[in-house]
């Protein structure tokens, strides 16, 4: 028992250190966003600002249509996430429960796309979006992101864990595929869909390279592009304002995570397939 | 006509033929058990009836209609799976009612059926529980309830009791009987447990290696086994199958022999073969410590306690014979005389391993008459 207690304490210490390492920059950024610029340079190690000020936020709201930019980011992340989830769910369902010719090859090709670096598809995608006249438009950012092989892979894995007999019982009761999906498969893969969804949302929310290629005017920017404006060589580096953008960039995913957290834990504990 | 008919049905997976040329009929309202060791194709047959498995060739008829291409949902079939297949996210009530709701059955009728089945299977008080909050026996009853409320003509059960302990099995079997008496569905039931089979079945289909070995009543399967496999598979310990030489009424085992009675002698002589295997069940052997004319001598190898009886393993001229004895007063190495009960012996053709049949007028001590036909495929 004694040894166990000690081992436990060591683990706790490791966890605390890990959490500190991860959370410190975030707290530092929040602190910085409330400091005047000279303070940021002079009292670098002070996490809590000595002369707390809102001036960074005021500058930010004065120079950028930040509500509009947040809205753009939200649209891109939400639409891409929803579509990725829908396409992934439907494709996974087909891969698990339908048998059709070329299924294995198709799946192999699909999984293969995961290993193609973004930089390879970047230029062809850009040309397509450009030809479609969707440059400098959030929908141009969204369009190539409506389906995702990783999502199909993860949701398929989760579906494969559902005992086939559940689907067979439903088939014996003459249920349509739509009904089986909605009433049986969807509730049982909900934990997977939720976690994949959050991951999709956050990765799209934070995306930088692709939007920077497509979006030109500030009006159409997403938050990571706005952030970049304050640390570019042209605009002069204004760390404290950049930190204010960071804080705003953080807020929505954080709210989302906190509000879903209970739900995620809930679905994980209540799923218990067997 | 709630009948199921197999006509030359085959099922092939890749290169392996899991069901070979199957021909039999499940009669309306009967309880038919598909019995056999694992991998014999019995579950595949059940799944073909359910429409969950395609039929490679041949025809399957249900209600007189060819159903090879009819989807599962249109076959009027309910099925209970070995793992019960309860929807884990639905309560007992939702599990039982779900299909009825989807089929848009009147609400009052759904409630009526639900109440009825809840009472019958003693599930009251559990309506709002999730499957994971139930014991194995309760889950099994929920699965049974869900299959019952559909009021299907055909009721398929895939090893429904194999996850229950011995006592629960007995009560679950009674419940199944009750359901069958009440609704009279045609039941096809898969099991590898012969006790389950003989206690529940009207008729048993015995499968081995994808081939039908025998289809008949439990009594006939036990007393009139169609072939060596059937004789060995049914009964525990299995039937003794001995290599013998037959010579005009004398059955020779090694250097010893015993004489058949007149009825058997005439019968075997008339079949004209003498390449035979001799079969006798352990429970149909009389053991005697003193020399007996109707028997052969052997040595006791060891004794096995079977609970109600003792299994005595005996070496007779290099062949092993198991006999049941109420006494355990046998010592290893002791000489013992093995006397088969003449009314209960079997002969099989050495080449085909098929039963050669039974003479007319065999006097049965239990007063039951068995069919004397040689049944392999019906």
List the helices and strands and how they pair.
The complex is a heterodimer of chains A (274) and B (378).
Chain A lengths: L1 H32 L3 H6 L12 H9 L2 H32 L5 H10 L5 H14 L6 H5 L6 H12 L3 H9 L4 H29 L3 H6 L8 H7 L9 H33 L3
Helix pairs in contact in A: 1-13, 3-13, 4-8, 4-10, 8-10, 10-13, 12-13
Chain B lengths: L3 E10 L2 E11 L4 E5 L6 H9 L6 E6 L2 E2 L10 E4 L11 H11 L4 H14 L15 H13 L5 E5 L7 H18 L2 E6 L2 H7 L2 E6 L2 E6 L1 H6 L4 H6 L6 E4 L1 E3 L2 E4 L2 E4 L2 H10 L4 E5 L4 E4 L7 E10 L4 E7 L2 E7 L9 E6 L5 E4 L29
Parallel strand pairs in B: 3-8, 3-9, 6-7, 7-8
Antiparallel strand pairs in B: 1-2, 1-4, 4-5, 9-10, 11-15, 12-13, 13-14, 15-21, 16-20, 17-18, 17-20, 18-19
Helix pairs in contact in B: 2-3, 2-4, 4-5
GO molecular function (chain B): ABC-type transporter activity; ATP binding; ATP hydrolysis activity
Keywords (chain B): ATP-binding, Cell membrane, Membrane, Nucleotide-binding, Translocase, Transport
InterPro entries (chain B): AAA+_ATPase, ABC_transporter-like_ATP-bd, ABC_transporter-like_CS, ABC_transpr_MalK/UgpC-like, Mo/tungstate-bd_C_term_dom, NA-bd_OB-fold, P-loop_NTPase, Transp-assoc_OB_typ2
Short note summarizing the structure:
The complex is a heterodimer of chains A (274) and B (378). With 274 residues, chain A is mostly helical. Chain A contains 13 helices and no strands.
Q: What can you tell me about this protein's structure?
A:
With about 270 residues, chain A is mainly α. Chain A has helices spanning about 1-35, 35-40, 55-65, 65-95, 105-110, 120-130, 140, 150-160, 165-170, 175-205, 210-215, 225-230, 240-270. Chain A contains 13 helices and no strands. In chain A, helix 4 (about 65-95) packs antiparallel against helix 10 (about 175-205), helix 10 (about 175-205) packs antiparallel against helix 13 (about 240-270) and helix 12 (about 225-230) packs antiparallel against helix 13 (about 240-270). The radius of gyration of chain A is 23 Å and the shape is globular. Chain B has about 375 residues and is α+β, with helices and mostly antiparallel strands. In chain B, the strands form five sheets. In chain B, strands 6-7-8-3-9-10 form a six-stranded mixed beta sheet, sandwiched between helices. In chain B, helix 4 (about 135-150) runs parallel beside helix 5. The longest helix of chain B is centred in the middle third of the chain and has 18 residues, at about 165-185. Mean pLDDT of chain B is about 90; it is low at about 375-378. At the A-B interface, helix 9 and helix 10 of A face strand 6 and helix 2 of B. Chain B: It holds the Pfam family TOBE_2. Chain B: GO terms for molecular function: ABC-type transporter activity; ATP binding; ATP hydrolysis activity. Chain B: It comes from Oceanobacillus sojae.
């Amino acid at each position: 028992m004694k040894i166990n207690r000690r081992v436990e304490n060591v683990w706790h210490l490791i966890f605390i250190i890990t959490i500190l390492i991860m959370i410190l920059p975030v707290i530092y950024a929040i602190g910085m966003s409330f400091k005047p610029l000279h303070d940021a340079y002079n009292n670098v190690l002070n996490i809590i600002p000595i002369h707390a000020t809102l001036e960074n936020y005021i500058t930010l709201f004065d120079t950028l249509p930040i509500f509009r930019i947040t809205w753009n980011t939200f649209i891109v992340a939400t639409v891409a996430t929803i579509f990725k989830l829908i396409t992934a769910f439907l494709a996974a369902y087909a891969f698990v429960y339908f048998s059709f010719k070329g299924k294995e090859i198709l799946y192999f090709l699909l999984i293969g796309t995961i290993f193609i670096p973004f930089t390879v598809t970047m230029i062809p995608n850009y040309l397509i979006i450009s030809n479609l006249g969707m440059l400098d438009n959030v929908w141009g950012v969204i369009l190539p992101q409506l389906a995702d092989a990783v999502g199909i892979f993860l949701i398929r894995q989760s579906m494969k864990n559902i005992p086939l007999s559940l689907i067979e019982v439903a088939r014996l009761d003459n249920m349509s595929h739509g009904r089986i999906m909605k009433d049986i498969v969807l509730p049982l893969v909900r934990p997977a869909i939720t976690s994949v969804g959050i991951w999709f949302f956050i990765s799209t929310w934070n995306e930088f390279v692709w939007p920077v290629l497509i979006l030109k005017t500030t009006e159409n920017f997403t938050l990571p592009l706005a952030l970049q404006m304050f640390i570019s060589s042209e605009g002069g580096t204004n760390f404290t304002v950049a930190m204010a953008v960071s804080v705003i960039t953080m807020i929505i995913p954080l709210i989302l995570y906190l509000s879903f957290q209970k739900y995620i834990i809930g679905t994980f504990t209540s799923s218990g397939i067997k | 006509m709630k009948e199921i008919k197999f006509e030359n049905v085959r099922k092939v997976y890749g290169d392996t033929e899991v069901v070979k040329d199957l021909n039999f009929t499940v009669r309306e309202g009967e309880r038919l058990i598909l019995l056999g060791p694992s991998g014999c194709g019995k579950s595949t047959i059940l799944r073909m009836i359910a429409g969950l498995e395609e039929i490679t060739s041949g025809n399957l008829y249900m209600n007189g209609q060819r159903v090879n291409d009819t989807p599962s949902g249109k076959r009027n079939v309910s099925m209970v799976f070995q793992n019960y297949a309860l929807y884990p996210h639905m309560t007992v009530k939702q599990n039982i009612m779900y299909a009825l709701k989807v089929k848009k059955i009147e609400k009052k009728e759904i409630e009526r059926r639900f109440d009825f089945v809840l009472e019958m299977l003693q599930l009251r008080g559990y309506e709002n529980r999730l499957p994971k909050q139930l014991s194995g026996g309760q889950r099994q009853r929920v699965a049974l309830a869900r299959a019952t409320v559909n009021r299907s003509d055909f009721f398929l059960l895939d090893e429904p009791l194999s996850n229950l302990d011995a006592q629960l099995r007995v009560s679950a079997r009674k419940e199944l009987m009750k359901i069958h008496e009440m609704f009279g569905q045609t039941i096809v039931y898969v099991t590898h447990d012969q006790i389950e089979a003989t206690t529940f079945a009207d008729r048993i289909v015995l499968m081995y290696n994808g081939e039908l070995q025998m289809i008949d009543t439990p009594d006939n399967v036990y007393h009139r086994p169609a072939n060596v496999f059937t004789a060995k598979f049914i009964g525990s310990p299995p039937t003794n199958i001995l290599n013998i030489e037959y010579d005009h009424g004398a059955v020779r085992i090694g250097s010893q022999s015993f004489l058949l009675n007149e009825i058997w002698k005439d019968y075997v002589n008339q079949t004209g073969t003498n390449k035979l295997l001799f079969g006798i069940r352990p429970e149909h052997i009389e053991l005697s410590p003193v020399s007996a004319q109707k028997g052969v001598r052997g040595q006791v190898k060891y004794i096995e306690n079977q609970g109600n009886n003792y299994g005595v393993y005996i070496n007779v001229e290099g062949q092993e014979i198991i006999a049941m004895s109420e006494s355990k007063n046998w010592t290893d190495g002791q000489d013992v005389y093995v006397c088969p009960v003449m009314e209960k012996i079997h002969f099989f053709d050495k080449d085909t391993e098929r039963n050669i049949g039974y003479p007319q007028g065999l006097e049965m001590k239990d007063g039951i008459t068995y069919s004397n036909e040689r049944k392999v495929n019906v």
